[in-house]
Amino acid sequence: MNAEKNYNLEVSPTIDDRLAKQKLFELRWPARKPLPGDLRRRICCIIPCYDVGRLCEPVLRDCVPHVARIIAVDDGSSDDTAAYLKAAQERWPRIVHVLTLGQNRGKGVALLRGFRQALHQTDCDVIVTLDGDGQHRAGDIPRVAEPCLKNEADLTIAQRQFPPEAPARSRIGNLASHGILKMVYRKCPPDTQCGLRGHRRELVARMVQTLEGNRYDTEARILMLAMRWRRRVAQAQVPAIYLGKNESSHYRPWMDSFRIFGAFLTVVALPEMGIPVNPNGLFPGRIRRRNRSHEDGMP
User: Partner of 143 at 20 to 30 A CA spacing, among 4, 135, 197, 277?
Assistant: First the structure.
């Protein structure tokens, strides 16, 4: 109780009540300082960006002290995202590298492209992913990276601590995917959809050989495959951060939840029943043709 009183004293009375509550919530999970240099040099960060505009600028800036390499993937943005990414690359040319997809292909494709680039151009041991719209703090990178760096986990997923005012659309997909996964994997993490994750290099290498990449369901497929392969999955508590009513998110609750349910069928349910299915979906050829028809020379 005393700690909460102290936090409240730090909140300016001129700040909107919602922002004051958010600040109090974040102060309960303070951001971490960068890891020592010998550990930081082993981390690469993938940041998929789609129409995030200026929101990606502080994300890239704050990530620089935490990692050795940042791979920002512009997923066919139609706004000024490319300009902000280019400016960051010019400011930190040894750390920031930008990949550009000719048109919007989906978050899963952007992640897989970033993974392949990290495997191809770096010798990092851990690959961290976080969103480019500011909903993940760079100060939480150590939380998801450390279990992988210590070889205590193959995959670490941030577990967002939702404030009461969290938008409903941000909970729907998470509740749906956790509910169906819990039926098969009792140790499934509660927050299955958070994009702030740490992956060991070996796991990423196997994922890029298995998955084609699609949209938001790709992150679900990665978690499902990790559990199906009996890989070690760890959790790290972080505060949930929302801008307004989460307008910056491109997650479509019903459509993407439907895709996640399809991922559950092809990655978990049918294989557990002894029915061999391609983990990319019931119609993997369509995804493969769509991806190859837009190849742009990237690894």
Answer: 4
Among the listed residues 246, 247, 198, 191, the one whose alpha carbon sits nearest the alpha carbon of residue 220:
191
State the amino acid at position 203 in one-letter form: L
C-alpha to C-alpha distances, 19 to 22, 24, 122, 159, 179, nearest whole angstrom: 5, 9, 39, 21, 31
Question: Could you tell me where the DSSP H helices lie in 41-193?
Answer: 56-63, 81-91, 107-121, 141-149, 169-182
Q: CA geometry: angle at 85 spanning 251 and 221, to 5°?
A: 35
Buried b (16+ CB within 10 A) or exposed e, 216-245: bbbbbbbbbbbbbeebbbbbbebbbbbeee
Q: Which residues, 6+ apart, have CB-to-CB distance to 104 below 8 Å?
A: 50, 75, 76, 77, 78
> DSSP code of 268?
I
Residues 6+ apart with CB under 8 A from 275: none
Neighbours of 178 (CB within 10 A): 15
Contact 128, 203 (CB under 8 A): no
For β-strands 126-129 and 197-200, DSSP reports them as antiparallel
**Mean pLDDT value across residues 22-40:** 83
Better-predicted residue by pLDDT, 228 or 13: 228
Residue 282 CB neighbours (<10 A):
11
Tens of pLDDT, residues 38-84: 999 999 999 999 999 999 999 999 999 999 999 999 999 999 999 99
- DSSP per-residue letters across 122-157: ---SEEEE--TTSSS-GGGHHHHHHHHHTTS-SEEE
